[in-house]
Backbone:
């Protein structure tokens, strides 16, 4: 058993938070992207993977004709997560995305979990788009590529693709080389492909409005008998899920912009985690163009291996877990951070002598304000319902506990409505009673969080309807995660086990015992 002192130090290292620089928010990476560049990057990534890859795959394998409803639910989850991301982007405009936001809000352990899952999401996103591009090229060539590799390189292993995709590997490595030249050069290429992409979509939409007729939605009596033919058309659509844009010969621009959009964030996550000591330090090196060269090449190799081995369906399912988990954690961080008594993002200069003196003073003395806080920290139902008007350590701790309870209730509610649907539909007493208890507890927990005082610090953008909107975001994201298959969770567990091994291998850096940029005075217990 570990001694009390080292064990407490270990726990504090895992939950301590990070302070980021406030003076100009400098970064060693080149900041040369304009608003137009960022919009093109996001639009290109979304249109490529979401419209041309996921639509057909999800409609065929999961949702069927209700693909429109699926996209509406996904849009709802994305909008709520986007609002939470926007607030954190205004608070902490530095490289790292949800990884950095989690590090600032809830601590080092959850930050590593978030970053590790973001790596998985971006790797899978890149690999899935590359395989989709390869499959489209194979369709254009009469499936000659697939026939050749099935004949000579067939892989008869469960969980892997039917054959290794060398073409997808070539595409990923080629675009990794393009990103290595610098952000500005790759941004120009992405804008060109995204512009062509948007023009083609506008052409399709305008043509549909011009040629469309609202009378086609009405069915007269003489055509009711012919409705049975709809089922044949539905199966025909399933057969042609890969062939939608083959005759346009412009699908290369769709997938190229999406592939660039998927590959762009991954090196930044690797760079940010390596800079903080959570991954290998060589990943934090930048070249003369201020681009993370080593991280970019490493990301390309990892994505190429995934595209080489796994099929599209497996990649899409695994990607969903990492993305939804990141969405949930960012929404959780918004809830926690808005109720903290102080929000400090400046990173003071580190002087070892002053740090040692301050540490000794903290151990030997307790200030009068701390004594007052201890005297006022008696928890009761009265303080829960009618807390102080300003946030304190007590109210912050209360919110932390309530958010943890909220996450537990959401997990239980999602599991019950997913695996107990049959019992709920049959009005089994235990299932309906448990459902009512979970729903009421969920609502009461949100109302109790809403009663707590918020921090009054203002930033450029803040999530509206707090805490209702982040809580709903957590509910939707966790519910969607529960819907995923057992095989997907097994692959996800393997990825997390690999991350745990890296944690053990990198334990001195992971704990950051010698890293002065971490704030040891703030904990989320």
Residues:
């Amino acid at each position: 058993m570990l001694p009390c002192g080292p064990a407490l130090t270990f726990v504090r290292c895992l939950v301590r938070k990070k302070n980021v620089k406030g003076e100009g928010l400098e970064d060693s990476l080149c900041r040369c992207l304009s608003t137009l560049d960022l919009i093109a990057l996001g639009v290109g990534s979304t249109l490529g993977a979401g419209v041309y890859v996921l639509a057909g795959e999800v409609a065929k394998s999961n949702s069927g004709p209700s693909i429109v409803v699926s996209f509406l639910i996904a849009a709802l989850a994305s909008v709520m997560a986007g609002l939470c991301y926007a607030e954190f982007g205004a608070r902490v405009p530095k490289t790292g995305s949800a990884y950095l936001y989690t590090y600032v809000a809830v601590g080092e352990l959850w930050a590593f979990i978030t970053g590790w899952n973001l790596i998985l999401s971006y790797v899978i996103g890149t690999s899935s788009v590359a395989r989709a591009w390869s499959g489209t090229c194979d369709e254009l060539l009469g499936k000659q590529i697939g026939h050749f590799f099935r004949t000579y390189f067939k892989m008869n292993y469960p969980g892997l693709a039917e054959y290794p995709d060398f073409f997808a590997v070539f595409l990923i490595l080629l675009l990794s080389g393009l990103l290595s030249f610098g952000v500005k050069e790759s941004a120009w290429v992405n804008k060109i492909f995204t512009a062509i992409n948007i023009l083609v979509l506008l052409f399709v939409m305008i043509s549909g409005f011009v040629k469309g007729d609202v009378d086609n939605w009405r069915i007269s009596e003489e055509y009711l008998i012919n409705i049975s033919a709809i089922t044949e058309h539905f199966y025909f659509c399933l057969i042609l899920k890969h062939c939608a844009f083959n005759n346009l010969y412009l699908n290369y621009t769709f997938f190229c912009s999406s592939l660039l959009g998927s590959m762009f964030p991954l090196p930044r996550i690797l760079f940010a985690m390596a800079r903080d000591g959570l991954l290998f330090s060589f990943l934090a090196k930048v070249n003369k163009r201020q681009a993370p060269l080593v991280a970019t090449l490493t990301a390309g190799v990892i994505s190429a291996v995934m595209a080489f081995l796994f099929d599209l369906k497996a990649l899409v399912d695994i990607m969903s877990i990492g993305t939804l988990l990141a969405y949930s954690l960012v929404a959780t961080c918004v809830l926690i951070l808005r109720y903290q008594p102080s929000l400090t993002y400046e990173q003071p200069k580190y002087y070892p002598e002053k740090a040692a003196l301050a540490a000794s003073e903290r151990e030997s003395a307790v200030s009068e304000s701390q004594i007052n806080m201890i005297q006022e920290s008696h928890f009761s139902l009265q303080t829960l319902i009618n807390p102080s008007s300003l946030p304190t350590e007590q109210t912050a701790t209360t919110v932390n506990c309530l958010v943890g309870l909220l996450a537990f209730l959401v997990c239980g509610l999602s599991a019950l409505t997913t695996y107990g649907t049959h019992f709920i539909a049959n009005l089994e007493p235990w299932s309906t009673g448990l459902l009512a208890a979970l729903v009421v507890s969920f609502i009461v927990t949100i109302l109790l969080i809403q009663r707590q005082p918020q921090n009054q610090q203002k930033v450029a953008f803040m999530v509206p309807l707090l805490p209702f909107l982040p809580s709903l975001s957590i509910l939707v994201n966790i519910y969607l995660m529960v819907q995923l298959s057992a095989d997907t969770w097994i692959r996800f567990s393997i990825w997390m086990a690999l991350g745990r091994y890296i944690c053990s291998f990198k334990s001195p850096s992971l704990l950051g015992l010698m890293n002065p940029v971490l704030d040891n005075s703030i904990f989320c217990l």
The CA atoms of residues 78 and 444 lie 25 Å apart. Residues 12-208+233-338 form one domain.
